[in-house]
């Protein structure tokens, strides 16, 4: 029987969850220690009982955001497969969805943060690189028999870029149209089977 997390671990998790949401919705600059602690129901002074630095929090929040996005995608893949859709189609339709367009705080950290990642501290960049590699691995896993890492990387780039452009256009007709065109292009190229 697994042990219940300690009160300190529960508090730590609450802080990381708040930081992961803030990262996806407001970027790296959106993670202010005082704000994250307030969102977690804590005082600013308690921060250093959990993290050595803001960068340590951001690195852990990136990991949490990646884990959460990966788990949500796995659930979506299972549901799509149960309905007779290919895993690739399910990944594309979920990643390039209106839901993902409208709610970056619940979506992929890579799409939310890619342009900012190279300017971060080493520990944060390492966590960001791990998220990119995880996304490429997820794409590769749904592509079918023996896809190359390069092909998966290009498709991941198309997913990220399409979502970023749609978000720039806005959660409106233009943004939705851009996602629809990107979905259609990717599915025609890599999943020629019709949707069920």
UniProtKB/TrEMBL annotation:
Determine if Transcription regulation is one of this entry's keywords.
Answer: yes
Keywords recorded for this protein, A-Z: DNA-binding, Transcription, Transcription regulation
Gene3D superfamilies noted in UniProt: Homeodomain-like (1.10.10.60), Tetracycline Repressor, domain 2 (1.10.357.10)
Q: GO molecular function terms here?
A: DNA binding
Residue numbers of the DNA-binding region are 32-51
Tell me where on the tree of life, at the top rank, the source sits.
Bacteria
Query: In this protein, which residues make up the domain named HTH tetR-type?
Result: 9-69
PROSITE patterns with a match to the protein in the record? HTH_TETR_2
List, alphabetically, the SUPFAM superfamilies matched: Homeodomain-like, Tetracyclin repressor-like, C-terminal domain
* Record has Glycosyltransferase as a keyword: no
InterPro entries on file: Homeodomain-like_sf (IPR009057), HTH_TetR (IPR001647), Tet_transcr_reg_TetR-rel_C_sf (IPR036271)
PANTHER family, sorted: TRANSCRIPTIONAL REGULATORY PROTEIN
- Protein name per the record: TetR/AcrR family transcriptional regulator
């Amino acid at each position: 029987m697994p042990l219940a997390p300690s009160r300190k671990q529960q508090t730590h998790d609450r802080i990381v969850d708040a930081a992961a949401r803030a990262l996806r919705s407001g970027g790296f600059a959106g993670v202010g220690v005082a704000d994250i602690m307030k969102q977690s129901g804590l005082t600013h002074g308690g921060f250093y009982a959990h993290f050595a630095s803001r960068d340590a929090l951001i690195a852990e929040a990136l990991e949490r955001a990646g884990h959460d996005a990966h788990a949500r995608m796995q659930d979506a893949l299972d549901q799509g497969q149960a309905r007779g859709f290919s895993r690739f189609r399910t990944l594309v339709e979920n990643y390039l969805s209106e839901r993902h367009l409208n709610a970056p705080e619940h979506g992929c950290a890579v799409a939310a943060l890619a342009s900012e990642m190279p300017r971060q501290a080493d520990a944060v960049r390492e966590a960001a690189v791990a998220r990119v590699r995880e996304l490429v691995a997820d794409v590769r896993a749904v592509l079918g028999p023996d896809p190359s890492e390069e092909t998966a990387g290009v498709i991941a780039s198309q997913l990220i870029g399409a979502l970023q452009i749609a978000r720039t256009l806005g959660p409106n007709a233009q943004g939705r149209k851009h996602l629809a065109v990107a979905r259609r292009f990717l599915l025609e190229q890599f999943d020629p089977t019709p949707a069920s």
